[in-house]
Amino acid sequence: MAFLSDIFSRVGRVARGEANSGVDALEDATFETTVKQTVADMRAELNKVVNASAMAMSNYNRLDAEYQKYVRQSQEWKDRAGLALDAGNEDLAKKALARKAESDKQVASLQAAVDAARQASDSLKAQVTDLKHKIDDGERTASTLVARKNAAMAQRKVSEALAGVGKADNAFAALANVEKSVAREE
């Protein structure tokens, strides 16, 4: 039983070695494509962040416009109340101040939302800028990695060719020995 276990273990090791060798060859063949796909994936993520940033800025702009509208209304009601008092119409001044109070409530309730939207928008803008820098760095790194990988593959081929030259030298040496042997026989 131990004999069979040893055989299966060895066969498994050979199979794993061949599989790893195949995967290594596949990685070598697709290295540049894989690196380019990584950069493309980073660009896709950038597009998602840009879209989210655009939505956040749009939300901020909409909230801020509404906030500013209520700020203006509050000021207008205050001005009308002042004009009504100047005209001696206290009832109209009270109504104008009541409307000003309503506008002030809207201003107060929108203030927190506007601040939160501004912070979210600013944060996403910073993330977009940061991600753009990372993608630029990634593209430079990818180009460098592809060039280094190509150089390493070329160096390996040169080394393999030089190793073959050593084998050829050994073959020539063997032929020289055979030639000497033939010469002695003659």
Q: Give the class from helix and strand content and strand pairing.
A: mainly alpha
Q: Overall mean pLDDT score?
A: 82
Largest sheet: none
Q: Mind telling me the C-alpha Rg?
A: 39 Å
Summarize this structure as a short list of keywords or feature phrases:
186 residues, mainly alpha, 2 helices, rod-shaped
Overall description:
By secondary structure, the protein is mainly alpha-helical. Helix content is 97%, strand content 0%. It is built from two helices and no strands. It has helices spanning 2-86, 90-185. Helix 1 (2-86) packs antiparallel against helix 2. The chain is rod-shaped and about 145 Å long. The relative contact order is 0.08.
How would you summarize this macromolecular structure in one to three sentences?
The protein has 186 residues and is an all-alpha fold.
Topology:
Elements: H1 2-86, H2 90-185
